[in-house]
Amino acid sequence: MRTPDVLRAAADLISKPGAWTQRSIARNGNHEPCGAVSVEACSWCAIGAIWASTREPFLRRDAQAMAEAVLPENSLSGYNDAEDRTAEEVVSLLRSAATEWERADEALK
Q1: Cα–chain-centroid distance for residue 39?
Q2: Fewest CB atoms within 10 A around its CB: which of 7, 14, 28, 40?
Q3: pLDDT single digits (tens) 49-78
Q4: Closest among 35, 20, 31 to 89, alpha carbons compared
């Protein structure tokens, strides 16, 4: 798995109805906070979705860094938790970050 794969997997995870959350890394079926990789998790913030998409620490770090690189404010949690933010916007951001990673990777070849 590569960094863009993690970003797309995270986007896919939270693109399902009810699978995105704010102000918590993840939530269980009762909407209570839980760990991103908890078997009880059923909704995730952007960072939680990245964590749930891979167990590899370097991929988590790189995916979060790439998502933050395409943001003007460079804070993925701040972007995710903005009051007027939508799940669709977060999904779009993660997909854009994956595309940007691949463009940069291709330019280096």
Answers
A1: 18
A2: 40
A3: 999 999 999 999 999 999 999 998 879 999
A4: 20
User: pLDDT at residue 22 above 80?
Assistant: yes
Residue type, 27: R
d(CA 68, CA 35): 21
Q: What are phi and psi of 97, to 5 degrees?
A: -65, -40
In which region does residue 74 sit, left (phi positive, over 0), alpha (psi from -120 to 50) or beta (all else)? left
In the 8-state DSSP scheme, what is residue 33?
B
Report the distance separating Cα 25 and Cα 20, nearest Å. Answer: 10
- 70 burial (CB, 10 Å; 0-12 / 13-18 / 19+) is middle
